[in-house]
Amino acid sequence: MSKVIITAALTGSIHTPTMSPYLPVTPDQIAEEAVRACEAGAAVVHIHVRDPQTGRPVPDLELFREVVGKIKNRSRVVMCLSTGGGLGMTTEQRVAVVPAFEPELASFNSGSMNFAIFPLAEKIKEFQYPWEKAYLEGSEDNIFPNTFKTLREFCAIFSRHGTKPELEVYDTGMINNIAYLINKGYLQKPVYLQFVLGILGGIPAAVENLVFLYETARKAIGDFVWSVCAAGRNQLNMGAVALAMGGNARVGLEDALYAGRGKLAASNAEQVEKIVRIARELGFEPATPDEARQILGLKGYETVKC
Description:
8-stranded parallel β-barrel; 11 helices; 10 strands; alpha/beta; globular; two-stranded parallel sheet
């Protein structure tokens, strides 16, 4: 059987503690979720960190260090550290994880966009923490900045530390940005693309949009390895389409809090188990972490600092 890479995005910076009691917040909780997700079939875990007291997304390198160390002591899962960060973080804060930990893989956002999550606030009457409402509503006037200057600088930092970029593509124009970076020699092929669907401000989660992104990227870039994640209720169906098209899939509590209609997912592993079942029905087996390293051309588990 062909092998597919399943990624679990463990906690992210979109959902807030009020939305689910299962959202991992502390380093121990995030590390435990990583181990369980790997045991369920995830080869890669995508990592953000949060203030352990309030659950707010933060760029705290010591929290990253604790999470990375705890995971590395218990699992060989590939760690993909976030350089997307959270609302209000500077580009310097976001990219600091790459020189600090030299991860095998890190997210690389491929262009600027209106990254809007403010409609989530309308659904909640009472928040657990004071920061949550203002954080969500503030995204109505937020631009997620990834200029060509910072893209070039991020490329140099990633290259210097041997970290492969997971190129996040929220809309079609970002494919042109990636092609430009490749043509200028800032990015080296083969590249790894993650099509991110369903964020307000980006391309909607629809089959025809995924096919369009894939075909556009093939014309602009050539061959590449790719994966798909989708926000909310579209998580599993778009992941299934990606697998059927020959791609890989991401699930996790960063992208969706549910594991079925009206049923909160009790863990990232629960979502991983679902996408693994779908993959097997389609004739695929989940890649192990070491198989994912081979597919993506990663430098190796032992090189990650903590």
